[in-house]
Amino acid sequence: MKITLFLAVLLLTSAVQAQMRTFVWQTDMCEMSGQYDPSKYTEEQLRNTLALFGPDEISLSARATVWNFSEIESLDVAKLDSDHKQMRERIATMPIVNSPYWENARKAKLRELDQVYALSRATMQAYTKPAVLRDYDRSPKCKADYGEPIVAGGDSLIAAWRKVNEASQSRNVDPERLKQRFETQLASPERLQFALVETMAFGWWNCANQDIEYDEDAQNGKHSDAFTKLFTNVKSVCDEP
Asked: How confident is the model at residue 17 (pLDDT cuts 50, 70, 90)?
């Protein structure tokens, strides 16, 4: 009787192990692999869940700032609108691991996506229609410190530009180089163009971007740890640091 029971348990264990499947994914430094029970979640659900936080996470890639005044005309608001619509629909509808934890991660990703989109859209438009920054519904201090000078232009924009440049100098290993470049650009007939480009990117954008509610758990490793716990026999092959 004991031998029969042992064989039954052994056969059942072997059957369960035979049903397990292997999933492979990448982190920043490692290739990971683990076994999962396909009766709990599918490979598609796992890949979509990983897309909420992994190296290939779903995010807007369109740039909202420029390095040179001549690049402003290349900013594509229509493409940004289209990308946001498609990505939002994908995130909202794609099947993920069915648990409250991952549904909350989905909500956090949607909130982050919407906020990045709103900031990106306002910033793109503000290069040619500065007053749109007044309609941006977040970051009141950034609007006061940088948005209003951008809207006002002239001496107000120059003053804001100077503060932005001085702040950059304080963080740079070669502050004298930045100071000399600023003085050269300030003396240029295109100084307002230089002022707009630098104040928009390093003043307005950097400031307002800090107010975006990014999903902290995607950055601090919590999502990665929770994802790894979906598997058994997890193995990793990592690059040397």
From this structure: low
